[in-house]
Design a protein that fits this description.
Elements: E1 2-6, E2 12-16, E3 22-25, E4 32-33, E5 44-49, E6 52-57, E7 64-66, E8 69-71, E9 73-75, E10 81-84, E11 87-92, H1 97-111, H2 116-128
Parallel strand pairs: 3-4
Antiparallel strand pairs: 1-2, 1-11, 3-5, 5-6, 6-9, 7-8, 7-10, 10-11
């Protein structure tokens, strides 16, 4: 599990939670330091207990809220929003290895020159294609279908590209040339 939050300067931060209890507060000794006058030096703590994460307000002056409710101690669930001072933390599950692999594949495809639309079209085609039973050679689906037969999914039509040509400039009129550097 992890906590995600944004610092006052807009920097997105992430803190991995584990077996060790953590503290959130204004003090440099806190595990997650929040520079906010409304946050106590040691404001609240999060710990793993019986396989679940719990948050406990540590007698802070301004309190700790989870999903808008002030709490003393409560079990955290994925998606919970924790507010400490003016900072909101999102408690979420880590992305699984399959998600990480998919992101890496997509980043590699884009680095190889594929566009976002092409990648999405390939994903849709993969989903629409019937999957062969495990261990079976790729080929047509088995003929024995006890349920009502469904027509094969239609392949989506490729997206149409519309090219708009700019109007021709008037003779002697100034024109602007914009050269954009490709994104890294």
């Amino acid at each position: 599990m992890r906590l995600r939050y944004a610092k006052k300067d807009g920097t997105q931060m992430e803190f991995e939670l584990g077996d060790r209890p953590i503290t959130i507060g204004r003090s440099p000794e806190a595990d997650v330091v929040v520079l906010d006058e409304k946050v106590s030096r040691v404001h609240c703590g999060i710990r793993l207990w019986d396989g679940e994460f719990f948050i406990k307000d540590l007698k802070s002056r301004n309190g700790t809220t989870v999903n808008g409710q002030r709490v003393e101690m409560v079990k955290l669930n994925p998606g919970d929003r924790i507010r400490v001072g003016s900072t909101t933390f999102l408690f979420e599950q880590e992305a699984g290895p399959q998600t990480d692999d998919a992101l890496k594949e997509m980043q590699q495809a884009m680095a190889d020159g594929k566009g976002y639309s092409t990648i999405l079209q390939e994903i849709v085609e993969d989903i629409a294609a019937p999957a062969a039973p495990e261990g079976a050679p790729p080929g047509p689906a088995p003929a024995d279908q006890s349920a009502s037969p469904m027509p094969p999914p239609e392949k989506p039509a490729p997206p149409k590209t519309v090219v708009k040509k700019p109007a021709a400039p008037k003779a002697g009129a100034p024109f602007k040339v914009v050269i954009r550097k490709p994104a890294p």
